[in-house]
Structures are given as C-alpha cells and as structure tokens.
Amino acid sequence: MRQRRFDVGEDLPGLTGGQSLGARFDSEAAALVWAEHWLDEVVPAIADRTPRDAAKTPQGRALLESLLRELEYGADLARRDGLTGADVGWIRQQLDMWSWQ
Length: 101
Prior knowledge:
Layout: E1 24-25, H1 28-38, H2 51-54, H3 58-80, E2 84-85, H4 88-95
Antiparallel strand pairs: 1-2
C-alpha cells in the first residue's frame, strides 16, 4: 500500500481579517448543488469522514458542529458581500443536527 500526503494549506488563499473559509456562490441553486455533494465528501476537518458519517457519533457531531458554525459565518459574510452562502440550515436538517448537545 502506498500512502500520499498533501498539504492542503498550499492551495488555500491567505486569509485576512473578516474572511472565512465558507463557500460563496452566485445563486441559491449553486449553493444547493454544492451542499448536496458536500454531505458525501470526505472532509479533513472532521477526521477524514463525510459529514453524513460524522453526524452518527458524538465525537463526529462535535467536530461537525464546529465546521457548520464556520460555514454559517462564511454564509453571513457572503450575504454581506451580495453573494449567496451555504444554506447551513438545510445542511443541519439533512444531518439531523438540530438536536446536537
């Protein structure tokens, strides 16, 4: 078995004050397509799990909650700039994250 490691930070733009890693879109339709696919993408920030898988365990839910809050912040910044952010309410509904404790 061969294992490869990548530094994903090399591909990210430098952040300055008031910026977030949240996704920004030109339309609600584009945001929905992104969210539908994101639910099944492996995400390094949640221990290399998909959001759907992470939502099944308490530890995964805690990591996922932190990431969802980051996406909410990014969505707020996108709206401030006249763009559309991720619909985190819809994502929470798909993951049954309303009852997170």
